[in-house]
Amino acid sequence: MLFSWLLILVLLFTDPCSAVQYPLRLADGWKYDDSYPEPSVSRKGFTLRHVYHRGTHDYPSMHRYHDISIKLRVLETLPVVHAVPVHIERLVDRRQEYIDSLLATARSHGQAERLSPDAWTIAALLGPNTTDKSTVIALAKMAYDAYVPDPSSKEWKSIGPGNHSIFNHSSSFGWDSDGLRGHVFLDETNSTMVISLKGTSMALFDGEGSTRKDKLNDNLFASCCCGQGGHYGWKVVCDCMTSAFTCNNTCLASSLETKDHYYNAGRELYGNITARYPQISNVWLTGHSLGGVVASLLGMTYGVPVMTYEAFPDALAASRLGLPTPPGYHIGQSRFSDTGIYHYGHTADPVFMGTCNSLLSGCTLVGYAFQSMCHTGKTCIYDTVKDLGWRSSVSSHRIVSVISDVLEAYDQVPVCEVTSDCEDCFNWKFYESDGSENSTEEYLPRSTIRDLA
């Protein structure tokens, strides 16, 4: 009886197919990026142009893509997207090798490297209008598309050296079995690109599609310590807990660097896609659930606009990775300029709200350890519990129902606000080690909205 009930619960969400702009404060030593002219408001129509697939676990060297034919491009009509000028603080040097060095330093020191003000700029870009309903729905549909199996998988090309080009032909691998995938949308003028990343594929048993790798990344990003020290049903994804509520942060950082890790795969995917379109000045990211978290982390890394949907709280992952942030910057303080990251979700989704972690929650019953509570950027929350009388349920996490029952049902987009006074893993202690069982540093502060800097 229990198994039957559990199966019914899980099947409710196994099929993923089924803003306010605050004034800018320019700190001493910071500068504006004037490499592009000040953008203006515009209307854009997007079409799907390419699909990319980055292997992680079974095929760590696989990175392939294929182009969408003109006939297939016209099959889907997306709502009109309204673009507006935005200003985002980001690194002056965003080359892959420089980012690699910053992340390596963060791993060795247990926290993000603190850079001088000269390393940062405030870029004037063209971004999605985060207060416009049509735009919010359009990017949500792009996030939905990342789940849809590709109709022409035999046309894959691999990314790598060959014939004096970064592109050459390769044999095909299974679509769902391994890695991170995303869809690339371009507007009519090829001046703005949207990259949508696939989210979590829920399933009762590991090994179905990308579920096992998704769960590994979810639990690395969202649990306090590898899924250890919590409920029995949580899937343990590393062995870094040394005693009750005590975690080896060095061990955690090493676990995040494995070939299974979607953030690293996302960086490579982002780098190869943008290298194909060097003339494009506006790159936006979107994604649902885990795809939204990866999109948010990439947005913080490269300083580009991001709109996510029902993403679980991501501040813990950003802190754990040691992502660089401007001097004196603290997530949760709106007097600083915009990060460009907007998280859309509703109150009946326990994954988005950070409450899907009780003993009998749908997430716990299938092994997900969602302990994180704090979002980066701004959250735009539809109060479906109060307005529509919904009850909290993992079934309301599916992007297809979010689009039809929430985003399209509401007349207006909610006000997007900065989360404050939020703390992750408040009862855990984290420490750095030298690779032995001995601690080499004092216990570190936990990743919190106030501490992530």
Outline the secondary-structure elements.
Elements (H helix, E strand, L loop, with lengths): L1 H10 L19 E3 L8 E3 L1 E9 L8 E5 L2 H4 L7 E11 L4 H14 L10 E9 L4 H13 L11 E3 L7 E3 L10 E8 L4 E6 L13 H12 L18 E3 L2 E3 H8 L5 H15 L5 E7 L1 H13 L3 E4 L5 H7 L19 E6 L3 H4 L8 H4 L12 E5 L1 H5 L10 H9 L8 E3 L10 E3 L22
Parallel strand pairs: 1-6, 10-13, 12-18, 13-14, 14-15, 15-16
Antiparallel strand pairs: 2-5, 3-4, 3-9, 4-7, 5-6, 7-8, 9-10, 11-12, 16-17
How many structural domains?
1
Helix content: 25-40%
How far is it from the N-terminal to the C-terminal residue, by CA? 49 Å
What is the radius of gyration? Answer: 21 Å
Runs with pLDDT <50, length 5+?
1-38, 71-75, 151-178, 203-209, 436-453
